[in-house]
Each structure stands twice: as structure tokens, then as C-alpha cells.
């Protein structure tokens, strides 16, 4: 499974567990409009670290936070394991 | 003139025309308080009373606080979401004999014999207001097990950290019924500018747009609030001169991101608690605080005892309220904050709470409470809750679980246990994941080992 598919699958799992309704998952989707709240994102990031070994939000800061789903996926794709 | 400050005298000193406390639904004009009140015509009847302030709308909270300080003997700020049992217990400890509310259907504790509605817009008062008592402000701590502690302050202790404030236009993501938000409310009132606040259920886009329209210059929130702003892509709707973080540990990631987004702003992370008051603020862009600040002389003294930060200052609370309440300070006047620090190089860094309390985006979680819920499940024999660092909410709740004999440590069991937790706990307390283990470590005393 590609990293992108893994991320999308985990987003759907977290949303289902937390009883959230997701917006259609396109690259342009602003994260704040995705239907996930801060707690959901925190859980998502922890699950992704377990599954992929990557934790770019803690590491590669450089003052940049992802704002859209596309940026979020790209951050994971560009980060090192 | 009375010998202590009250909010009305703060307002008069602040002068300035057109000052407001604005929410989405109300704009409270601060220069009208000389002749008008949110509690008219009952304001006089509240004089000398111990008052529960059980108001949801934040503009009304602001108005009632201005009306009651110097008039009531005591104000207890009821936090959002309190159930009637908790209110009853707090009312008894605070000897409350009056309640101010903005909801006809709200419950009224038995000790209360005067109920007053808080209404906006302000209504004219017939006689000049008398504000000459030193009112006690009671702030409940955000305890989640048992009864919350009731912390006693006065306006003097609450405004101790607030200096001269020129024309600052304030905004905060906080609820002003909590210490962090209350500080910003008092800062705004002591200055010459206005204050813009959120409304219940208001989205971040709407809030940032209102902050932008109000041309706010000074703004505060928790690191979790700020990470949300950073992820929203709408942070540039505001152009602040000063950005304040408090209420949680600020890491260098969020500080660097805020410096980049608001390049002209001074970014400061403050350390404060309801009990200890405002202790310090750090603006050098780094996490933690300089080690040299500990045991230096000044208005605030700090010492570190067994890894925990202890604080003595005139901004600390006066004590806890209620029968059998513990002492707030040691015999030298220091408050034990329960916040654990670690020295690395020339800095101290906050590492968490003593007793394992987990701070999930500002909400405090007691591991024992989550363990109780886990252990109530038929297939769980024992559990141990622990924190995992999160770049989004600071920390997350996780748990080690020992299953009963014959139960399978698989995804179905995990799903089953977590579903039961979701039914009995608020979302932030439900473990984000479980680890199935064969056994849990014990201390020599036979207790669950919480560290390691």
C-alpha cells in the first residue's frame, strides 16, 4: 500500500472510531474543514508513527505546519523513516 | 475611594473611548458601567452576598464580574459543564446564598435564596453604584477526580502580574472563566483597549475573522489553540504585535512556527497556574526557562524540590476554600505546583505533572480514572495508563492492558474495550491505543509502577 493510501485509510479509521463525518478527501481539502478535530489529528499522527515509523510533525518543523490534506501527505512522503 | 482596587475603578483608570468586550453576539460598552448594570434592578440585593456566577455567555460573564467585584462578598466562577451535584457541593463550601445565571432552567443549589438573571444590553441603574468591598474570587481547579479544589483569590492577587498597559487590543481563544482567560480579561480591562472573545461552538475561521476585523494587537491561547491556527492556513487574518502561549508546555516547534508566521510579533510563553498565579513569561524563542531564574530574588521566588517547581509570590492564591481543605503553601509560603522540571544545560524544561496527570490539549486526565473504566471491562484483568508525547495536543492517553485468561490480544479485543471506554469517558480520556502485555510492573510497595 502506498504511503498516501495508508494515510487515507488511517484517517478513515480515526474518523469512524471518533464518530466524525469526513469531508471528501482531496488534496486541496483544508485540514480544519476535514471533519477531524485536534484530538483526532493527535491520534492520527500517533497511529501513523506506529504504522510508518515517521513523525514529521515532531521532527522536521522548520516552522511549517501542513494546512491542506495534500501538504499533510507530502510532509510524510518527504520525511525520513 | 476604597483602599483596594475593584474592577470599576480599574475601568475608570483605563479611560479611553469606545472600549468594548465583544463576542459574536454582544458588544459590551465599558464606559456605560457608571450608570448601567447587567444585574439591574437586583444589583443592590446582591451586596455582601456569596454569589455563584453560573453564566454561559462570555460577554455576560464579563459584565457580571464588573458588576459584582466590590459589591459581592464572594464570587464563585462556575466553569462550563458542571453538573448539579458538583454545583451543590461547591455552593456549600462557598456558603453561597445567591446565584447569577443566564439560563432559566439552570439548577439552583439549596443554600441559595436569591436568584438573579444576568441580561444584556445593560440597564440603567437609579442610584450610584457602591463598590467598596474586597471581594473574594473563587476559581475551581480543573480536577477530574472527586471534587475540584476551590481556589481563593482577590482582584489584588489576580492582577499582580499586570503592569502598565498602553493601548492594547486584546483577544483570547480561552474561556474567561478559567485562570488563563481571566488574566487576559483583567489585562484588557486594566488597559485602554478592547477585548474580543469567542462564542460557544464558534468555528476557528469565524473567530479569526472577527479578531482580524477588530484589529487585535495582543492575543493569547494554549499551544493547542495555536497549532490549530497554524494548521488552518488562516493565521494571517490577524497581524498581532504580541502572541502569548500558556496553559500547556510550549515546545520549540510551535514557537518557531509562530515566529515565522508573525514575524513582527513578540512571541512569549507564560507559566501560570490557578494556585500559584502568573510565575513568569519567556520571550527568547526557546522552550523552558533560564536556570538562573530559580532562587533569584524578586517578586516571584522559585525553588525546585524533588524535581517539582515550587513558587512563592504575591500573585499566588490566598488558599483553598471549604471544610478540611489542605494548606496551599508550605511553612515558607511556597506553593507546590506539581509541575515537574528537568535541568538541561542552562535551562529548565517542563516534563509533565507529578502523579502522572496527563495534559491532553489543556484537559487534565487522571490515569486512575481511565484505568477504572478499562478494568470494568469483562476481558480486562489489569491496566496501566501512560502518556505519549503528541506534536498536536502535547500528550495523548495510551494504556497497557493485561487480558483475562483465554482472551485474545487482537484488534477485535482492542476495538471492543475501546468502544466500552468511549461509552463511559469523554473523548480526550479514551486511550488512543492499547498495548497488550503479559504483566504490569509493580513497585516494592506493591503498587502499580507508573514510570518505566
Quick overview of this protein structure:
With 81 residues, chain A is mainly alpha-helical.
Protein architecture, described:
The complex is a heterodimer of chains A (81) and B (452). With 81 residues, chain A is mainly alpha-helical. In chain A, 54% of the residues lie in helices and 0% in strands. Chain A contains 4 helices and no strands. Chain A has helices at 3-17, 38-52, 56-59, 69-78. In chain A, α1 (3-17) packs across α2. Chain B is an alpha/beta fold. Chain B folds into 2 domains: 7-341, Rossmann fold, CATH 3.40.50; 357-436, ANL, C-terminal domain (GMP Synthetase, Chain A, domain 3, 2-Layer Sandwich). Chain B contains 10 helices and 27 strands. Chain B has helices at residues 7-14, 58-68, 84-93, 155-158, 179-190, 204-213, 223-232, 252-261, 367-375, 411-424, and strands at residues 20-22, 27-29, 36-37, 50-54, 74-77, 98-101, 114-117, 123-124, 136-140, 150-154, 170-172, 195-197, 218-221, 242-245, 266-273, 277-282, 289-290, 300-305, 308-313, 319-321, 335-344, 347-353, 358-360, 363-365, 380-390, 394-403, 434-436. In chain B, the strands form 6 sheets. Chain B has an 8-stranded mixed beta sheet, sandwiched between helices. In chain B, α10 (411-424) links the parallel β26 and β27. In chain B, α7 (223-232) packs across α8. The longest helix of chain B is centred in the C-terminal third of the chain and has 14 residues, at 411-424. The model of chain B has no long low-confidence stretch (mean pLDDT 90). Chain A binds chain B through residues 17-18, 30-32, 38-39, 41-43, 45-47, 50, 55, 57-58, 61-68, and chain B through 204-205, 224, 227-228, 230-234, 252-253, 256-257, 259-261, 360-361, 388-393, 396, 418, 422, 427-428, 432-433.
Structural class of chain B: alpha/beta
Helix segment tally of chain A: 4
Kindly, what is the distance between the CA atoms of the first and last residues of chain A, rounded to a whole number of angstroms? 16 Å
Overall number of strands of chain A: 0
> Assembly type of the shown chains?
heterodimer
Termini distance of chain B? 59 Å
Query: Tally the helices of chain B: what do you get?
Result: 10
Biggest chain contact: A-B, 25 and 32 residues
Give the overall pLDDT of chain B as a whole number. Answer: 90
Share of residues in helices of chain B:
10-25%
Any low-confidence stretches of chain A, pLDDT <50, length ≥5?
none
Radius of gyration of chain A equals: 12 Å
Radius of gyration of chain B: 23 Å
Strand portion of chain B, in percent?
25-35%
Largest sheet of chain B: 8 strands, mixed
Enter the CATH topology name of the largest domain in chain B: Rossmann fold
Amino acid at each position: 500500500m502506498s504511503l498516501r493510501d495508508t494515510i487515507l485509510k488511517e484517517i478513515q479509521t480515526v474518523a469512524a472510531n471518533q464518530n466524525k463525518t469526513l469531508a471528501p478527501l482531496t488534496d486541496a481539502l483544508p485540514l480544519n474543514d476535514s471533519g477531524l478535530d485536534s484530538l483526532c489529528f493527535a491520534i492520527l499522527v500517533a497511529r501513523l508513527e506506529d504504522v510508518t515509523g515517521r513523525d514529521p510533525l515532531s521532527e522536521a518543523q522548520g516552522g511549517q505546519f501542513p494546512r491542506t490534506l495534500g501538504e499533510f501527505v507530502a510532509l510524510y512522503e518527504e520525511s525520513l523513516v | 475611594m476604597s483602599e483596594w482596587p475593584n474592577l470599576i475603578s480599574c475601568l475608570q483608570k483605563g479611560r479611553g473611548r469606545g472600549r468594548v468586550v465583544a463576542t459574536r453576539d454582544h458588544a459590551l460598552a465599558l464606559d456605560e458601567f457608571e450608570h448601567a448594570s447587567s444585574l439591574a434592578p437586583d444589583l443592590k440585593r446582591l451586596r455582601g452576598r456569596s454569589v455563584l456566577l453560573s453564566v454561559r455567555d462570555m460577554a455576560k460573564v464579563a459584565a457580571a464580574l464588573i458588576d459584582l467585584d466590590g459589591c459581592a462578598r464572594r464570587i464563585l466562577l462556575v466553569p462550563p459543564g458542571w453538573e448539579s451535584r458538583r454545583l451543590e457541593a461547591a455552593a456549600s463550601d462557598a456558603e453561597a446564598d445567591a446565584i447569577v445565571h443566564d439560563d432559566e432552567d439552570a439548577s439552583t443549589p439549596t443554600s441559595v435564596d436569591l436568584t438573579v438573571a444576568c441580561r444584556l444590553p445593560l440597564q440603567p441603574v437609579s442610584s450610584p453604584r457602591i463598590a467598596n468591598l474586597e471581594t473574594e474570587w473563587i476559581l475551581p481547579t480543573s480536577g477530574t477526580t472527586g471534587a475540584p479544589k476551590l481556589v481563593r483569590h482577590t482582584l489584588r492577587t489576580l492582577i499582580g502580574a499586570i503592569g502598565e498597559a498602553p493601548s492594547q487590543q486584546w483577544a483570547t481563544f480561552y474561556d474567561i472563566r478559567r485562570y488563563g482567560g481571566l488574566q487576559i480579561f483583567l489585562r484588557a480591562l486594566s488597559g485602554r483597549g478592547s477585548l474580543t472573545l469567542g462564542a460557544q461552538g464558534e468555528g476557528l475561521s469565524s473567530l479569526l475573522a472577527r479578531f482580524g476585523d477588530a484589529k487585535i494587537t495582543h492575543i493569547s491561547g494554549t499551544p493547542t489553540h495555536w497549532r490549530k491556527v497554524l494548521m488552518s492556513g488562516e493565521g494571517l487574518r490577524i497581524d498581532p504585535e504580541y502572541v502569548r502561549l500558556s496553559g500547556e508546555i510550549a515546545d520549540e516547534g510551535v514557537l518557531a512556527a509562530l515566529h515565522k508566521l508573525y514575524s513582527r510579533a513578540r512571541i512569549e510563553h507564560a507559566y501560570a497556574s490557578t494556585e500559584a498565579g502568573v510565575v513568569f513569561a519567556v520571550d527568547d524563542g526557546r522552550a523552558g526557562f533560564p536556570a538562573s531564574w530559580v532562587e533569584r530574588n524578586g517578586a516571584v521566588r522559585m525553588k525546585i524540590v524533588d524535581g517539582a517547581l515550587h513558587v512563592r509570590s504575591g500573585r499566588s492564591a490566598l488558599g483553598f476554600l471549604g471544610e478540611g481543605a489542605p494548606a496551599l503553601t508550605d511553612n515558607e509560603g511556597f506553593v507546590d505546583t506539581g509541575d515537574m522540571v528537568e535541568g538541561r544545560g542552562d535551562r529548565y524544561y517542563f516534563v509533565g505533572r507529578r502523579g502522572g496527570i496527563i495534559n491532553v490539549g489543556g484537559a487534565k486526565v487522571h490515569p486512575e480514572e481511565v484505568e477504572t473504566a478499562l478494568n470494568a471491562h469483562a476481558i480486562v484483568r489489569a491496566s496501566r495508563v501512560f502518556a505519549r508525547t503528541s506534536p498536536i495536543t502535547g500528550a495523548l492517553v495510551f494504556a497497557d492492558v493485561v487480558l483475562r485468561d483465554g482472551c485474545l490480544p487482537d484488534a477485535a479485543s482492542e476495538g471492543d474495550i475501546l468502544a466500552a471506554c468511549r461509552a463511559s469517558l469523554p473523548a480526550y480520556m479514551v486511550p488512543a491505543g492499547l498495548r497488550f502485555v503479559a504483566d504490569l510492573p509493580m513497585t516494592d510497595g506493591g503498587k502499580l509502577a507508573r514510570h518505566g
